[in-house]
Amino acid sequence: MEIWVNPACSKCRSALSMLDAAGAEYTVRRYLEDPPTAAELTAVLARLSLEPWDVTRTTEPVAKELGLRTWTRTPADRARWIEALAAHPKLIQRPIITADDGTTVVGRTEEAVRSVLP
């Protein structure tokens, strides 16, 4: 299992605590220091069955600088959004957890985190 975290994020810390309490084995990826590539983001989005705008933190200052709220959200815009997430990983919603069986969730709730536990 891998979890993408920002250590400053309370939701990330909570998810890590839940994984620890369950005795789960996992790898931490500090995605701000080790940003995912566009290909990795594309794969994670496919596992999540979400679009890039669904996992974008549009209230971040960089989102405002880029004007993300005005970007269109169509299949033709998908690559543009993914490139923005890859270039500015702070925009990625967190934590993202990928279980060994391929199940992937945005672990912002206890239910989501529990859903990936063995």
Q: Structural class, from secondary structure content?
A: alpha+beta
Give, in spatial order, the strands making up the sheet with the most strands. 2-1-3-4
Mean pLDDT: 96
Query: Based on CA inertia axes, which overall geometry fits?
Result: globular
In angstroms, what is the radius of gyration? Answer: 14 Å
Low-confidence stretches: none
Q: Into how many domains do the coordinates divide?
A: 2
Biggest β-sheet: count, sense, barrel? 4 strands, mixed
Give the DSSP E fraction (strand runs of 2 or more residues).
5-15%
Order of helices and strands: EHEHHHEEH
Secondary structure tally: strands: 4
Terminal Cα span: 10 Å
Walkthrough of the structure:
Its EC number is 1.20.4.1. The chain is of the alpha+beta class. It folds into two domains: 1-31 and 94-118, no CATH class; 37-91, no CATH class. It is 37% helix and 12% strand. It is built from five helices and four strands, in the order βαβαααββα. Strand 1 (2-5), helix 1 (10-21) and strand 2 (27-30) form a beta-alpha-beta unit. The mean pLDDT is 96.
Secondary-structure blueprint:
Elements: E1 2-5, H1 10-21, E2 27-30, H2 38-48, H3 61-66, H4 78-87, E3 96-98, E4 104-106, H5 110-114
Parallel strand pairs: 1-2
Antiparallel strand pairs: 1-3, 3-4
Keywords: Oxidoreductase
EC number: 1.20.4.1
Family: Belongs to the ArsC family.
